[in-house]
Amino acid sequence: MRRKIVAGNWKMNLTFQEAKELALRLNTWVKANKPTAEVIIAPTHLYLEQLNKDLKNSHITVASQNVSAMENGAYTGDVSAEQLLSIGTKMSIVGHSERRAYHYEQDKYIGKKITHLYELGMSPILCVGEKLEDRDAGKHFDVVQEQVTVALERQKEEDLKNLIVAYEPVWAIGTGKTASPDQAQEMHAFIRKTIGAQHGISIANSTSILYGGSVNPGNARDLFEQYDIDGGLVGGASLKLEDFTTIISANK
Ligand SMILES: O=C(CO)COP(=O)(O)O
């Protein structure tokens, strides 16, 4: 059975007070409503320690938005997997398109991050997705195949059980333009096939593949009903409790 998941990527939003309040209100909602989907939030690194404490015995996982590809040392401004784990964080987003675009992160480097996480018993949410020009040129499958295979090529099979991948077409992020359910399903099935070819069918079938890119309360249900869409990675709409909880409820 693949895990159903709805994750909120808060990006560089919310003050500490706002983040704390949103996390606590979300926790109250999750306790009262017991959603089918697992709930994950990814606040800025700065708030992880406090939110880990506030949500300690909750059903919400607090994830990091990024992690260094290096173990430790002279990497000013970076945060290592070991440091994250030392404050109780066990999951990190890696390869988000904003990291790829503004920090020039590439697939091999993203693969190193994943390896570090696994070495410490932590887990990644691997983000992949093509740019508009790739899709217009008909190269979207090639681009995503390369992103998935290079990031996962050095990982051990036993680590990849319960992998989480997020398909986030760059042209759909923060633009209000969502991939249609058919477009998303087609790519999710392709990602699962790609993982199956590389690591075997059992890992492919236990991978949760989330869709990200302008998910909102109005389009979530149609996306989540697709066979290979196991949930969402939500940006803007995860900052509003009502919108985020409506999206969580849509993933049954
Ligand atoms: O990048 C995203 C989540 O990681 C998606 O962001 P939006 O939901 O704001 O389009």
TrEMBL record:
Mind listing the GO molecular function terms for this protein?
A: triose-phosphate isomerase activity
- Source superkingdom: Bacteria
What EC class does the entry list?
isomerase
| CDD domains assigned to the protein according to its UniProt record, in alphabetical order | TIM
Cellular component, GO, one term: cytosol
Name the GO terms of the biological process aspect: gluconeogenesis; glyceraldehyde-3-phosphate biosynthetic process; glycerol catabolic process; glycolytic process
Q: What is its EC number?
A: 5.3.1.1
Q: Does the keyword Cytoplasm apply?
A: yes
Active site, renumbered = 96 (electrophile), 168 (proton acceptor)
Primary location recorded for the protein, binned into one broad class:
cytoplasm
Sorted alphabetically, which keywords does the UniProt record give? Cytoplasm, Gluconeogenesis, Glycolysis, Isomerase
The record's section on Pfam families has: TIM (PF00121)
Q: How does it assemble?
A: Homodimer.
| Protein family membership | Belongs to the triosephosphate isomerase family.
Q: What does this protein do?
A: Involved in the gluconeogenesis. Catalyzes stereospecifically the conversion of dihydroxyacetone phosphate (DHAP) to D-glyceraldehyde-3-phosphate (G3P).
* NCBIfam families for this protein: tim
**Full protein name:** Triosephosphate isomerase
Q: Which organism is it from?
A: Moheibacter lacus
The lineage, from the top, is:
Bacteria, Pseudomonadati, Bacteroidota, Flavobacteriia, Flavobacteriales
